[in-house]
Amino acid sequence: MDGVISDHIPPSVQRALKRLGDVAVAVFAADWQLIWWNLSWAALLGDPSSSPLQLRNFARDRFPVDTGPARLALWPVAETDRDSTDVAVVSDLRRATGRFPHDALLARLVDELRAGNERFAELWAIGTVAAHREDHKTIEHPAVGAIRVDCDVLIDGDSECKIVIMSTVPGSADETKLRRAAIAGPPVVTNSLVARGWATFRGVP
């Protein structure tokens, strides 16, 4: 439907994901709803399939409206520039409301975050437009210890899909830890749709 966010991952994005190999990567829809991830992502941050479909949303995690635990990263993640990421995520949602004016789930998400999270409401009112910058994160993995990663966000201009890539410096101790995490991390994702490939996970109430 025109004006509604799609969960479809464009063929060009699918090809790019395949070429990334074992790099930890996930794809989010225009409203930051998680729609695909690979096994390296699950090994690094925990298996998102343990969270209900409708709660697999990075904006909800970023701007919680309750005191519940994080749903997308199952262990602590520290970052170097939290404020810039906050502004960029709010800017993404503002742009999405213009691109997808008839998406009821997006409208509900924005209304809930404006009403329930003071930080989101403040940034939304300011109306700053921002892009995602390179970020550096430290993930406290329970099996292998702290892993330092570079985080890059690529955006597909047509679908507004966000491709989030977590990578380590080649040849570093962090790369070795990430490889170990892929072995000693969480169990293989059990959702059969993930195992088959480009599954979508957009929650519909």
From TrEMBL:
Pfam family, one: MLTR_LBD
Domain MmyB-like transcription regulator ligand binding: 9-180
Source taxon at top rank: Bacteria
Gene3D superfamilies linked: 3.30.450.180
PANTHER family: BLL4672 PROTEIN, BLL4672 PROTEIN-RELATED
Name of this protein: MmyB-like transcription regulator ligand binding domain-containing protein
